[in-house]
Predict the 3D structure of the following.
Amino acid sequence: MQRRIKDYAVISLKGLAMGAADAIPGVSGGTIAFISGIYEELVSTISNVNASLFKTLFNKGFVAFWSQANGNFVLALLSGIIISYVSFMKLAKYLLESHPILIWSFFFGLIIASIYFVGKQITKWNLAAIIAFIIGAGIAFYITMLPAFSTNNSPYFLFVAGAIAICAMILPGISGSFILIILGAYKTLSDAIHDIDIKKIAIFVAGAIIGLLSFSHVLKWLFKHYHNITLALLTGFILGSLNKVWPWKKTLTWHTDPKGIMSPVLQESVSPFSFQGESMLAFAFLLMIFGFLTIFILEKVGSKKQ
């Protein structure tokens, strides 16, 4: 596929959107990749990292290796994801602490639109697709109901957390950041990025790379042999994740860290009319619409040939 510089600039912008989404515990960068039209290329590119690729490097040189690895695509996308994720993580923390209803409202609208755009790619809704959709929705909803574990700073645990979270990050609907919160690794990683703790970051990245390379082969195989069922499962994931991004929550359990900082462990969704506090319903509704329209823009950009 021949691409121009402006095409790679657009891919980097999609990477920026993916990174920003993954920084929010409840929103998946995989959803953004799917809507923007690069999901299957991303999965295929990752799964092509194998012994054959490195054999090409040694036998035919770097140029052939780079071409086979779809290097320009990877570089453009990854640069956008990393820049956005690292820079947006601090902003996301501030928004979630200071304006949770508004930020969740935006992403609620975004995910509602995502369900439509992913679901419409299913060419045939048969019994198998319906069952896959229900299973996906059930699994994602169950995950959103899980309480968070206590923070764990073990290097081995951080490695495993990276491997698990990266799989969620490329799955539409299931947030890698939310998985990190459930596992008790989100704060550890956030502190490591803030303090530039190279050792912890490297351990997490190593786990993420191994998890990503392994899981991408499974996804590629599923798309090749069970395309419709896989799409139905992913659509279910997105639907089930709505519980996590519902703007109005009631906190049932709190956790206090050694510094005395309290954070919610277990929450449940409530009606905005029974929410204890200012519901900000008008602003929330407007941001839902904005999030909904954002997906239409991404889908329009993604439908163009890159």
Observations:
- The first strand starts at residue 249 and ends at 256.
- The mean pLDDT is 81.
